[in-house]
Amino acid sequence: MMNLKEQVGIKAAEFVKDGMTVGLGTGSTAAFFVAELGRRIREENLKITGVTTSNVTSEQASKLGIPLKSIDEVDSVDLTVDGADEVDADLNGIKGGGAALLMEKIVATYSKDYIWIVDESKLSEKLGSFKVPVEVVPYGAEQVFRKFKKAGYAPTWRLRESGEKWLTDMQHYLIDLHIPEISKPEQLANELDLTVGVVEHGLFNKMVNKVIVAGKDGVRIIE
Ligand code: 5RP
């Protein structure tokens, strides 16, 4: 019996057609999608170009023989498939649990079609059960952290096991905001976009076209 993440990963690969440029997401769910593309390349002679969203995904895709280009080497991406940490009823979402939100948002922005693959535990009426990751440049990062604290966002640093601050693939720090109920995701996104020192944040509001959800009753698509 396939687990839920594998089910949605394989389902999403059905949307990939020969010749497409495909954005390859990051995380344990997206990894099943990437693995299925690898299988189709091997067994069905599928021809695609991948654009990855993290070093980890680049490594996986290279091992599977998926030809890769950077986001700057392609005109646009036909379809990107990625996981998500939380999705609300209006298809706003939080991403970045796997620390790849910046590259993920850039690739998604230049994608014609954008699909999330999740298990049903990620769905909620309103965002807020997952922390909002915010990627910040190291210079002045403590100031940004204090600003979030004053705003009541209960920030915490994303840390490595060694206790040092986590460094993203793009060499930035991550601050996680604990906001139990995000009633206005657009307002919060605007505020974060306007905060000097913030490179990007994990609120992906209304960016996605389809969410493929796996649960105990099977796989369904929300659009
Ligand atoms: C990485 C992400 C991931 O897509 C998100 O964290 C979901 O991961 P998983 O599929 O492992 O639950 O945004 O930055």
From TrEMBL:
Active site: 104 (proton acceptor)
Transmembrane regions listed in the UniProt entry: none
Record keywords: Isomerase
EC number: 5.3.1.6
Biological pathway: Carbohydrate degradation; pentose phosphate pathway; D-ribose 5-phosphate from D-ribulose 5-phosphate (non-oxidative stage): step 1/1
GO terms for biological process, alphabetical: pentose-phosphate shunt, non-oxidative branch
PANTHER family in alphabetical order: RIBOSE-5-PHOSPHATE ISOMERASE 3, CHLOROPLASTIC-RELATED (PTHR43748)
Family membership: Belongs to the ribose 5-phosphate isomerase family.
Function: Catalyzes the reversible conversion of ribose-5-phosphate to ribulose 5-phosphate.
Protein name per its UniProtKB record: Ribose-5-phosphate isomerase A
